[in-house]
Write a structure and sequence with these properties.
Length: about 220
């Protein structure tokens, strides 16, 4: 459906979610994709209503432009309305530029939590695929095919080397790199088995050395 951040739509969506989840309160509710046809004040007033009624606790923003996030924060302050406490950008070791150039300073300046998605670049950083031949017939072919370039292969080589040294999976090293970024609160990642979940959870324990962090930054530099 089209993005809809109108007051009535948000309130009904939250109430429907509470019924489906069988809970009384949603901790973090996010505006997912911007709705340029609706005033920011109307959206924030809807969230104010929901917070006052104990249906949500905090709000976040996913896929809103930095300009709209800044404007939302200003309107919230001016009108004593709820403000976004977190943003959800695409960010990983391969896709760095947009977040670092457009969102990171905004997040730091406003103390916003950063919950990044596509943290493994659609599986590219997992090491499961090491050449374009490996993704032939894969569901993610279109999302991955352009990543097998000189820079992408350089990233995989460095990830593999550090994973060997740290005795961890390449996925865990890629997530550890994200967690070493001062502005990142938590990278989002999916697992399809207990084994994968255990491998990925190692990321919070891995301490990259300054040299390893430098090598990953250097390999992924544009």
């Amino acid at each position: 459906s089209k993005p809809n951040l109108k007051k009535e739509y948000i309130i009904k969506s939250v109430e429907d979610s509470l019924l489906r989840l069988n809970v009384d309160t949603i901790d973090l509710y996010q505006s997912h994709h911007d709705d340029l046809t609706t005033g920011i004040d109307e959206t924030l007033e809807a969230y104010h209503n929901l917070i006052q009624n104990g249906k949500i606790k905090w709000i976040g923003a996913s896929n809103l432009s930095p300009e709209r996030i800044s404007e939302s924060l200003r309107i919230a302050e001016d009108h004593n309305l709820p403000y976004y406490i977190a943003i959800q950008p695409e960010y990983n070791l391969y896709d760095r530029m947009k977040y670092e150039e457009q969102y990171e300073q905004l997040a730091l300046d406003n103390h916003l939590g950063v919950i990044s998605y596509y943290s493994l670049a659609s599986g590219f950083l997992s090491g499961k695929y090491r050449s374009i031949d490996d993704i032939k017939g894969a569901k993610r072919y279109d999302a991955l095919k352009d990543k097998f370039n000189t820079r992408g292969l350089r990233i995989l080589d460095v990830l593999a080397e550090i994973a060997h040294t740290q005795q961890a999976s390449m996925s865990a090293i890629a997530l550890a790199w994200s967690l070493h970024r001062p502005s990142v609160t938590a990278p989002i990642v999916s697992a399809t088995s207990i084994q994968q979940l255990e491998e990925l959870s190692r990321a919070v324990e891995i301490k990259l050395t300054p040299e390893e962090y430098y090598l990953l930054n250097q390999a992924s530099d544009y």
